[in-house]
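quick one: iron/sulfur cluster bound model?
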Amino acid sequence: MDEPEPSAEQQIKQRLLLHVCCGPCSTASIERLREKYDVTGFFSNSNIAPEPEYWRRLAEAERFAKEMAIPFVVDAYSHEDWLECIKGYEGEPEGGARCERCFAFSLSHAAAYAREHGFDFYTTTLSISPHKDSTTIFRVGREMGPFLDVDLKKQDGFRRSLELSREYDLYRQDYCGCEFSLAESRQ
Ligand code: SF4
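yep, here:
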């Protein structure tokens, strides 16, 4: 007797490590990616300051991952190391050279984790933001490891993230993450 064709559920999905920058950005990203991949969230955001803001964003991202029933890994928080990485670029405007170094810091952690734990690819929720340049994110991501170029702001991703954030009553911050972006947002 011929073996039956495996159902869609039985087919093994490729393992994707998703760098999660915050709960709201993770919403539509997880919804879209888990249709095709076996997704694990990876929270690595040493850029966030002050520290209570870090814990608040982490709690919200973790809560949403639980709602979606996906595994969720939390990287160490080391804002001192992050400050060292962007040293000399503190005064750059948002979207400039400081941000590129910031992406590289977080994505290098995600790439290393993906490699060490047998993931097929990694990618990031950062590309869902209309304020962030996906071309730069993709270039930096590829330099770090097996990066999946998926522009999450496409297919109405950002709008859907707003919708889901409202539905799940997620905290939505009003600045990007670091103390420099916080100061810029308060000007
Ligand atoms: S503005 Fe955002 S992306 Fe740029 S350095 Fe600060 S936290 Fe990183």
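Residues 47, 94, 98-99, 102, 176-178, 180-181 surround iron/sulfur cluster (CB under 6 Å).
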